[in-house]
Write a structure and sequence with these properties.
Structural class: alpha/beta
Strand content: 15-25%
Largest sheet: 4 strands, parallel
Bound molecules: iron/sulfur cluster
CATH class: Alpha Beta
Helix content: 40-55%
CATH topology: Rossmann fold
Number of domains: 1
Order of helices and strands: EHHEHEHHEHH
Strand order of the largest sheet: 2-1-3-4
Number of helices: 7
CATH architecture: 3-Layer(aba) Sandwich
Radius of gyration: 17 Å
């Protein structure tokens, strides 16, 4: 069985409280990007960790510390979760520096089955609305 790590977008894990349910479900059933492990007895997800948040333009290397934990867990491959693949502007930079840092690890784009483009666009709009929703703050007191 292939030992798999997953790295997620911290916006989705922390702000949106995503439990990685879709990624885990498809890893169990061998769907989506986990289908490639059928001839190895399937995928065993041994760790999930979110990215380290905004790396700024000068420090994309900050993600290495997070991924090192997955590598130390003895993974064969690390998947960039669907959320990262869909919305992360740093994914190419992350991919190239992680592959250089951990040359024995296979880095894979995506996790669960892709929604069709129409549904994906709907999810994008939902995520945007949720991330930008306004909670009450002291500004509401000052405004009165
Ligand atoms: S750096 Fe990418 S993966 Fe991390 S929170 Fe930002 S968009 Fe998400």
């Amino acid at each position: 069985m292939a030992r798999i790590g997953i790295i997620t977008c911290s916006n989705m894990t922390n702000d949106m409280a995503c439990s990685s349910f879709g990624c885990l479900q498809d890893s169990h059933t061998g769907k989506g990007k986990f289908a490639q492990y059928a001839d190895r007895g399937g995928a065993q997800v041994v760790g999930i960790i979110s990215c380290s948040g905004c790396p700024t333009l000068i420090a994309p290397e900050k993600i290495v510390r997070r991924v090192r934990t997955l590598v130390a867990s003895g993974v064969d491959a690390i998947h960039f979760a669907y959320c990262m693949e869909r919305i992360c502007p740093f994914k190419k930079k992350y991919r190239s520096l992680l592959q250089k840092e951990f040359p024995k690890i296979e880095f894979v784009s995506g996790t669960h089955e892709m929604p069709d483009e129409g549904h994906a666009a709907e999810i994008d709009q939902f995520v945007k609305k949720a991330l930008c929703q306004q909670n009450l703050s002291m500004a509401d007191v000052f405004g009165k």
